[in-house]
Amino acid sequence: MNRTRDIFSQVKAIYNNCADELSKTIYMDKVLYAMSGDERYTYKLIEDSLTNLFTSGRVDVIKTFNKVVIYGAGDNLDIVFGFCQNNNIQISYICDKDENKQGKEYKNIEIISPDNLVKNHLDAVIIISTTLYLTEVKAFLRLYFKEEQIIPFVDEKHIEYMKLQYFDEVVKLEDGEIFVDGGCFDFETSELLLDRCRAEKIYAFEPDSINLKKVQDKVNKTGFSNVEIIHAGMWDCNTILHFNTQGSIMSRVDENGENEIEVVAIDEVIDGKVTFIKMDIEGSELKALHGAEQKIKKYKPKLAICIYHKVEDIIDIPSYIHSLVPEYKFYIRHYSFGQAETVLYAIV
């Protein structure tokens, strides 16, 4: 009972420390999903985060058609199909240009070819699920369908918003930033920083040997000389851990991993001031924050910390940060069409 009360108290404290209504809304969407596993909270999270993807007006337009087709049977299909179910929209067909998918079914819905679509279903409304090929698909559909029949699940505005991850408008960058890029993968995040300000120094942490070459190549291309590449993971102490090396953003500390890597504490390897710490390190964020305790307490840097890799992160990470610097204000933003890519910003 005491543990339950403690959890509720922590959730309430985090909620009250959120600096704006959007952060409070996203936070409660995450908490309710964590408690229930109900996918309706995932749909609500996406809707709340990405500014009315499926407004009632768009739903009403779709429902005026007797035939509804989802275009794109890729990564976003699950979430788009779920949104439609949640809004009582019946799907007639799914369309995809991949011949390996055509003729098969998804949840008892036939997957048809684009040729079939334009020959037999010109009376349908088309919901575009893809983001990667959005421009290409829209151009194709406009050859055969009226504009009111083409409804992207997300538009260019939402796609551009997702590129703000770690640098949302709540983060006020200044020249002279000393940036800690935790889980830098291929240095892309640091490149985005350099596009936005004149950084003084970047500490780029990357434990994956495969990714390390990508980092070095990108650093060489940027021409920015004051980068310290640290071939190690982040942790609460300096030690050796097992690691699952994938050469991708999914590489992570894993007790069953076949490789071993060095992990280090920020407080042990960085001398002096830091102004901005970003962490997207596949579930090691809390450990790494413990390893940065002194830097956080002393310098109160801007923080951009992922809080989705473990279900307990949405409580444990904000609570720990608040215990270090009570004056931090929290902003929470979400950048995907699922439960992943939720970022906690802590700013004084």
How would you describe this protein?
- The protein is α/β, with parallel strands linked by helices.
- It is 38% helix and 20% strand.
- It has helices at 2-17, 21-36, 40-49, 56-62, 77-86, 114-120, 134-141, 156-162, 188-196, 209-222, 266-269, 285-290, 293-299, 313-324, and strands at residues 68-71, 93-95, 105-106, 109-112, 125-128, 150-152, 178-182, 201-205, 227-230, 233-234, 239-244, 252-253, 259-264, 276-279, 302-306, 329-334, 342-347.
- A seven-stranded mixed sheet has the order 9-8-7-14-15-17-16, sandwiched between helices. It has a six-stranded mixed sheet with strand order 3-4-2-1-5-6, with helices on both faces. It has a four-stranded mixed sheet with strand order 10-13-11-12.
- α1 crosses α14 (313-324).
Summary keywords:
348 residues, seven-stranded mixed β-sheet, 14 helices, 17 strands, 20% strand, globular
Total strands: the figure is: 17
Hey, roughly how much beta strand do the residues contain?
Answer: 15-25%
Helix content: 25-40%
Sheet with the most strands: spatial strand order: 9-8-7-14-15-17-16
| Whole-angstrom Rg | 22 Å
Large-scale geometry: globular
Low-confidence stretches: none
- Tell me the number of helical segments per DSSP (H or I, 4 or more residues long): 14
Helix vs. strand class:
alpha/beta
Give the mean pLDDT: 92
Largest sheet report: 7 strands, mixed
Span of the ends, CA to CA: 34 Å
